[in-house]
From TrEMBL:
Compartment(s): Membrane
Organism: Roseinatronobacter thiooxidans
Membrane topology: Multi-pass membrane protein
Protein name, entry field: EamA-like transporter family protein
Main localization of the protein described in the UniProt heading: membrane
Keyword Transmembrane among record annotations: yes
GO cellular component, one term: membrane
Entries under SUPFAM superfamilies matching the protein: Multidrug resistance efflux transporter EmrE (SSF103481)
Superkingdom per UniProt: Bacteria
Bilayer-spanning residue ranges: 7-31, 37-60, 67-86, 98-119, 131-150, 187-206, 218-239
Family statement: Belongs to the EamA transporter family.
EamA domain segment(s): 12-141, 161-288
Alphabetical list of PANTHER family matching this protein: EAMA DOMAIN-CONTAINING PROTEIN, INNER MEMBRANE TRANSPORTER
Length: 300
């Protein structure tokens, strides 16, 4: 049963935000030696192996009923295969910081989808206000240039690609909520192997064997598979069991901040003022939608 967050929970939350925030930096570096398709396929394969080992060590039994397999397939496609490829392709044309900030919109999209798909999570006036404010932030982030030519020929499409990845993650989150009760690590293993069954053949058939990359992009790809997918899942489960899912949801505020900071410090990416403004508006929308005091007065 979740208890009040401990110092260990806070350290775990910060670590989780850093690990996930650094994944956008990892993708940017991995793209120096691999194609977008192989970046996505590689991190999924490594992640599937890593999480399987974790499940074996933990003694987790895989539950593979038809219903659970169907939900795992949905998660494998919408929370792994599709967004990983979209982000890998998009980050050829936008900065890692931009991609990370776009992910801050995921909780807002979840609120919108949950209104129609999750019983008991209707769109209250408070949530609607936060959702709309967050959409304003997304509009500021994407900018008017999405409809015009910019520095890169594909930059406008890449911005929309990042947004499509966020939408995919949001739908994947709803699928996870609707899944029958199952151990999250075991469920993650099933989902990643479904994603592997899709992405690995696609990469091999389309592009053949991956190139012999230099150490820097190879280590980045290894990081993407081992930490954001493998170890982070174990950390996530521990935080949920100890402090609860509501506490864990605060990680949504950390990820975009880390992605921006690491992009600026490590890759010397530019940080337009519009990005900071958009991040502030999106986070304000998240906070407004989660304010319990006003939400409590809304009808159930």
């Amino acid at each position: 049963m979740p208890t009040s967050p401990t110092l260990g929970n806070w350290i775990g939350l910060i670590a989780l935000g850093l690990i996930w925030g650094a994944s956008f930096l990892g993708v940017a570096i991995a793209l120096e030696g691999f194609s977008p398709l192989w970046v996505a396929a590689g991190r999924i394969v490594i992640g599937a192996i890593t999480l399987t080992v974790i499940a074996v060590v933990m003694g987790v039994r895989l539950q593979a009923s038809p219903a659970i397999l169907a939900f795992a397939a949905g998660m494998g496609v919408l929370s792994n295969a599709l967004p990983f490829f979209l982000l890998s392709w998009s980050q050829q044309h936008v900065t890692s910081g931009f991609a990370g900030i776009t992910m801050a919109s995921i909780p807002l999209f979840v609120i919108g989808f949950a209104h129609f798909l999750v019983l008991g999570e209707g769109l209250t006036r408070q949530k609607a206000m936060g959702f709309l404010l967050g959409l304003v932030g997304v509009g500021v982030l994407i900018g008017p240039g999405v409809f015009a030519a910019s520095g890169s020929e594909f930059e406008a499409a890449a911005r929309l690609g990042c947004l499509a990845a966020a939408l995919s993650y949001a739908i994947g989150s709803i699928i996870t909520r609707r899944c029958p009760e199952v151990h999250p690590v075991g469920f993650g293993v099933l989902a990643l192997w479904v994603a592997t069954a899709i992405m690995l053949p696609a990469a091999l058939i389309t592009e053949g064997l991956p190139p012999m990359a230099e150490a820097r992009p190879f280590l980045a790809l290894l990081y993407l598979g081992l930490l954001p997918t493998g170890f982070a899942t174990l950390l996530l489960v521990g935080i949920i069991r100890s402090a609860g899912p509501s506490f864990l949801s605060q990680v949504n505020y950390h990820v975009p901040v880390w992605s921006v900071l690491l992009g600026v410090v490590v890759l010397a990416e530019e940080l337009p003022g519009r990005f900071i403004l958009a991040l502030g508006i999106i986070i304000a929308g998240q906070m407004l939608a989660r304010r319990k005091g006003l939400q409590a007065r809304a009808p159930a």
